[in-house]
Design brief:
With 425 residues, this protein is an alpha/beta fold. 23% of the residues lie in helices and 15% in strands.
């Protein structure tokens, strides 16, 4: 059947043109019946075979698929949905970044400085570019991710710092065998016999130092310890404290059992009266040649600012005996009875200045007896020298002035504290 629209010769009985897809008219014969009913169709006039246009195949082609008008609409809707998904995804990612970076985005320099102050403990310095009006913070804050890519390459200097921190702290080896950390603030050398302090100046942060034994005589290295506040020097033969006078930081000094003379200690205290000294008894002793009772002698000593001498050690007793001998030599007076500052009137021996009683050697044989041959109570202490025993300790009655053999041969020892701030131990 020839298509009346495009002239294509379609197969008989086709309802649509294979080329243009338009509907074909129904075939009829002369009887009004559809063509082909009863006899074959014979077209009128000369029959000419249809020739397809040049370039077209004469082979029948299937009808082209007809595109539904809804397809473009669906494509447009799909495109819009895709765009919407992309936009929503971008918004979600941006929102996540803002949330992760909350506290790092600032609208003003003041807010940035406030944040820097909280995180770094101080205001961030401001650097101004002279070629522009811009101001930037010298310690910038990074907004967003803290991934490895944002952090950049690892700084080797951090590793070096950590390695330095892991090293053992430096120390100083003293000749006595002690080791002191260079940054230590105290050192207790009690267990060491200290002969010198060479090298201790390498520990300038020391504020406390304890030395309790050794042959130490030179305190010179201590003059370098400008932070030294507390110093203990016990049982060492130092002869002076001159090296310590320039230590303005020194506040306390313990000098128990040293060989310091009273003059050496007084020379130091005259220069440094602000230093509290302990452990040293610095008294002056004066032998007063006079016939007097024990009570009267103590009263005169108190009036002079002292007491009858108290004995705290055997060495001190020997020192006083030496002083009595010199007084005899200088005066030409032979002494037999010299009052000291102890009494047993309360039932036990006590020193008048409150010093704890010390058990001393050197008593005359059979003494103290507590009474004389006539029964008189003997409760006052004196040094007695009447025979080959030399000076010995003895208890006597309070008043001997009535005895002829005693008159002109009596004395007492006045003891006075000469160094302000130094108390007997």
């Amino acid at each position: 059947m020839i298509c009346p629209h495009c002239g294509y010769d379609n197969v008989s009985g086709s309802k649509f043109c294979y080329r243009c897809g338009k509907p074909l008219p129904a075939e009829t014969d002369q009887s009004g019946q559809p063509a082909g009913a009863g006899q074959p169709y014979q077209p009128e006039g000369p029959q000419t075979m249809y020739q397809p246009p040049q370039g077209q195949s004469s082979v029948p082609q299937p009808p082209a698929n007809k595109i539904s008008p809804l397809v473009p609409v669906l494509i447009s809707v799909a495109g819009l949905l895709l765009v919407l998904v992309v936009v929503l995804s971008a918004l979600l990612v941006t929102g996540h970044k803002k949330s992760a970076g909350a506290g790092h985005s600032f609208s003003t320099i003041d807010q940035l400085l406030e944040k820097s102050d909280k995180e770094n403990g101080s205001k961030a310095g401001l650097l101004t570019d002279e070629d522009s009006d811009s101001v930037m913070v010298s310690q910038p804050f990074i907004d967003g991710s803290d991934s490895a890519a944002d952090k950049g390459p690892e700084d080797d200097s951090d590793k070096k710092d950590e390695q330095e921190m892991e090293k053992a702290p430096e120390s100083v080896q003293l000749s006595c065998g002690a080791q002191i950390l260079k940054d230590a603030d105290s050192a207790d050398l009690s267990q060491y016999s200290v002969g010198d302090l060479n090298g201790i100046e390498q520990c300038p942060d020391l504020s406390s130092l304890i030395i309790k034994q050794g042959s130490l005589t030179d305190l010179g290295p201590l003059s370098k310890l400008t932070h030294l506040r507390n110093l203990v020097l016990n049982n060492v033969p130092v002869s002076d404290l001159d090296a310590l006078t320039g230590l303005s930081s020194l506040t306390t000094l313990d000098i128990h059992d040293t060989q310091l003379s009273a003059d050496a200690v007084k020379r130091f205290t005259d220069t440094r009266p602000d230093v509290q000294i302990s452990g040293y008894t610095a008294f002056s002793y004066t032998v007063v040649i006079k016939d007097t009772s024990w009570d009267q002698a103590e009263a005169e000593c108190e009036a002079a600012g002292g007491h009858l001498a108290s004995i705290r050690s055997q060495d001190e007793l020997n020192l006083i005996i030496d002083g009595i001998s010199r007084a005899q030599d200088q005066s030409g007076v032979v002494l037999h009875y010299v009052w000291l500052g102890a009494s047993s009137s309360s039932g036990s021996w006590q020193w008048v200045d409150g010093t704890p009683w010390t058990q001393l050697d050197g008593w005359y044989p059979g003494e103290p007896s507590g009474h004389d041959v006539d029964g008189t109570v003997e409760d006052k202490l004196c040094l007695w020298n009447i025979d080959d025993y030399g000076w010995t300790l003895n208890d006597q009655r309070n008043d001997l002035t009535g005895f002829n053999q005693v008159a002109g041969h009596m004395a007492y020892v006045l003891e006075k504290e000469e160094l302000t701030g130094i108390k007997p131990q």
